[in-house]
Amino acid sequence: MIRIENVSKTYDGVNWAVHELSLTLEAGEFVVVLGKSGSGKSTLIRLLNRLVEPSAGRIFLGGDEITGASPARLRRLRRRMGMIFQEYNLVPRLPVLTNALTGALGEISPAASLFNHFPAAAAKRARGHLVRLGLGERIYQRADRLSGGQKQRVGIARALMQEPEVLLADEPVSSLDPSTSKVILDILQGVHRDRGVTVICNLHLPALARDYGTRVLGLRKGRLVFDGPPENLDDSAVHNVYDED
Length: 245
Ligand SMILES: Nc1ncnc2c1ncn2[C@@H]1O[C@H](COP(=O)(O)OP(=O)(O)O)[C@@H](O)[C@H]1O
Ligand SMILES: [Mg+2]
Description:
- With about 240 residues, this protein is an alpha/beta fold.
- The chain has a domain at about 90-165.
- About 35% of the residues lie in helices and about 25% in strands.
- It contains nine helices and ten strands.
- The protein has helices spanning about 40-50, 70-80, 95-100, 110-115, 120-130, 150-160, 180-195, 205-210, 235-240, and strands at about 1-10, 20-25, 30-35, 55-60, 65, 80-85, 165-170, 200, 215-220, 225-230.
- The strands form two sheets. It has a six-stranded mixed β-sheet, sandwiched between helices.
- The structure holds adenosine-5'-diphosphate and magnesium ion (MG).
- Magnesium ion binds near residues 41, 42 and 171.
């Protein structure tokens, strides 16, 4: 589904944020990426939809190469990958419904979205996602009035509007308390299970990786130091990912 071939990234020409990474992620996996701050987790996620340009290597989504794709082709490829952010990235002043609808911008003309005129079909789908995510009562509320957990549910609804094959989640629960984190990860697990969406999720807690991942990747200084099922993530594997040298 996603093939990463010998990908490296340096931002400054000196240090490797990601170094010589080769990986195949299969359709239907729930991949959790673990690693200390600075280990390259965000870079890896952002390389996948080319928010970050690789310094070397190639990346494929299905049979389509993401690296080197023209702008028009890249737009089409990005539509297949929904993204969820640690800080939600909502437009604070806008209502929940409008925020969710921005996920469908690829199918709406820029002029229409400028005037907040979204097609009824898209609005109906957005409402459906919001209701299923427990936000039915909040549809017309401004996004900045919501709790963190509610904001992240809007972020998920927005990503689902793309009907993505892949969900890329960069530390989606790092700003949330443990019980809210569980609510959000349970939702991602439901999307994975019920819609067959491939999930790639950066987390920093090994315990959550064990609970939610079907496959765990461990990054250390941009290199892959663990790749296996959660049951193989024993204490020595965790040390190998997190310990100082
Ligand atoms: N935009 C950037 N410019 C320069 N260096 C960056 C940038 N983004 C990340 N880095 C560096 O790349 C390395 C990996 O960072 P990142 O991918 O953000 O790791 P993580 O998400 O695991 O904390 C770090 O050394 C970080 O300082
Ligand atoms: Mg990060």
